[in-house]
Fold this protein.
Amino acid sequence: IEDLTPIKDTQPYPVGVAIDSRETSGSASDLLLRHFDQITAENHMKPEAWYDEAGVFRAHPDADALMQFAVDNDLRVYGHVLVWHSQTPAWFFQNDAGEPLGTTDADKQALRDRLHEHIFAIAEDLSTKYGLFGDGNPLVAFDVVNEVISDSADFADGLRRSEWYRILGEEFIDLAFRYADEAFNQTYAAAGADRPVTLFINDYNTEQSGKQLRYKALVERLLARGVPVDGVGHQFHVNLAMPISALEQAITAFGDLPVTQAVTEFDVPTGTPVTEALLVEQGYYFRDAFRVFRAHAEDLFHVTVWGLTDGRSWRSSNGAPLVFDDGYQAKPAYHGIVDGELPE
Ligand code: G3I
């Protein structure tokens, strides 16, 4: 591992990285611990990850590995994600006979009960195993709902037509936050402490105007109803053509609301073929983006990159989207983030 200035020492907010258990040992772990002070489970805290094949609740072994890694190394954990339309077992939305739940009162109540059980089981599992309510609690936040905003402008409420929505309508979002607030509060309250788990809503393309307007309108409705949403996440899966000003504008757009914000899943593929010139251009992009993030540090709970090394990224086929290469070497993107020297 190169003897470089740790990224985390150069930024005014925690700097996170999405990982799975592969990054908890060897050179990957050395690199991670040098540069980052927070982790997100890339997949192993998603709804389906908490259930075995028979649908029985249990923490995924990799989720446990990540939590233990965080405890051992004094890292913060950003939970991802309690409620999503994707990576959720089909039985969530079915009755005992395996038929789709409808919208009768009984079916709606069945889904509310399932949501309640799911969120409480996760909170209880984490609190029992990792002393969430004492010193050294690694879990600082959770994405409560992910990607609930529609990609199109077709619906007055701006919400994605998911199974959650089909059965419960907008109510599922309120309930998810209220249950998460209760689930993480009950045990904290018992320990005489406030809930230290910040509750986030999270979405992509929030740097684009239509999605952003729909996103903000929802957050405003939630706040008006007293729903305990604490934070607004911007995934920022962007590319070199996205103006930096759009990232700044997205953060500014929510500045008048009583919420914190975060950059939750940052990555910037170069396009292919990946050339030296594109990697340098990417370095400038990371430099300018992180200058904007630092300028808005007061609004940001953390900034997270969506993967440690290029080959491990979900967008690797779009061209080297991350900060370190597969040999664990710093790319120009690293020098951009720390505002160091970049080639002309
Ligand atoms: O683990 C299985 C493996 O056993 C199997 O052989 C293999 C075959 O396809 O699949 C593996 O699962 C894959 C999983 O990643 C773990 O690698 C899934 O197919 C694959 O779909 C899954 O992709 C993840 C994706 O979410 C799923 O929607 C990506 O890693 C992950 O980076 C991505 O993350 C999302 C965020 O949660 C939400 N925001 C967007 C972001 C990017 O899509």
